[in-house]
Amino acid sequence: MREMIWQTQPVKNLRRVIYYGYHNNDEKQMFRSSLPIDRILEDPFDLPPMILCCKLTGQWLSPERGGPVRMVVPEACGFKSINWLTHVILSNMAAANDTCIDGNNDIDSPLKTWAATPAVPRAAKANRPIPITGYAQVGISGLTKVHTWVCRQATEPGDAPDSVTAPLVDATIPEPPRQGSWGGTLPEGRTPAATPGCTIDGSPKQWPLRLCKAYWSTLLPGLPPGEYTPRSHTIDDNGHAQPMPRPFRKSGHASIEQVSFVVE
Question: What would the pLDDT profile of 31-63 be if each residue is shown by its tens digit?
Fold first, then answer.
């Protein structure tokens, strides 16, 4: 994005970049987003750059993924990464003009670190270990660990007290793949040498990588028959337990999710 902006040769009075894409032919349904110009021109804390994206691992971007051109804002929620991009406007506006600013949303809030709803068996056998899996979104503050805990339904208090009083179990986060075994559509299964957050040979500087999803698993101890509610939460690199340090829903996802299952 910054390479394109420098081609317009701006010299002053530029504070924010507004952009929007094709939705339909009704101008009232335009969906737009924006970024401060400083974030576009410079990448702080080893974050990836703002990308005008037309390819994914060497292949032209499909319409289903927002092609032929879309925005990619790596550390932001999805509404900042506009699909089917058609317009980029350089502006001297001091404030954001995003569509999502309606509804009291914090539209410049970067990704948080949080654990999604854990996956549990439909029914588990009594007094036998119970496998639970899930993933965590790694935000700008990184991820140190994932805790899980389980409570008998309708007998335990809500999320905040549980995170203090319930016995916590550390989940296991797999080690990073070796170069050559990343899989997917990466050439030769290797991360490119210039990947942000990686060393010169493409190995992660820290694991899990920020702004990615980290999968985890754990084995709960056997439980007596009954209906249970497992939960999970993250601890970021600063020692903050989800939903902290930003517990407010309007600045991105933060709640501790839960799901129920039966032990027979």
Answer: 899 999 999 999 988 889 999 999 988 889 999
Nearest to 8 by CA among 77, 108, 90: 90
Q: What does the pLDDT look like over 158-190, one tens digit per residue?
A: 444 344 456 888 999 999 988 888 887 788 888
**CATH code reported for the domain at 114-173+208-263:** 2.60.40.650
- Assigned superfamily of 2-101: Oxidoreductase, molybdopterin-binding domain (3.90.420.10)
Rounded Cα distance, 96 and 36, in Å? 8
Give the pTM. 0.85
Q: Is 76 exposed, middle or buried (0-12, 13-18, 19+ CB in 10 A)?
A: buried
Domain residue spans in the chain?
2-101, 114-173+208-263
Residues 6+ apart with CB under 8 A from 131: 121, 217, 218, 219, 220
Distances from the Cα of 130 to the Cαs of 16, 221, 229, 243, in angstroms? 51, 6, 13, 25
CA neighbor of 240 nearest in space, from 165, 140, 156: 140
Q: How far apart are CA 149 and CA 259, in angstroms?
A: 12
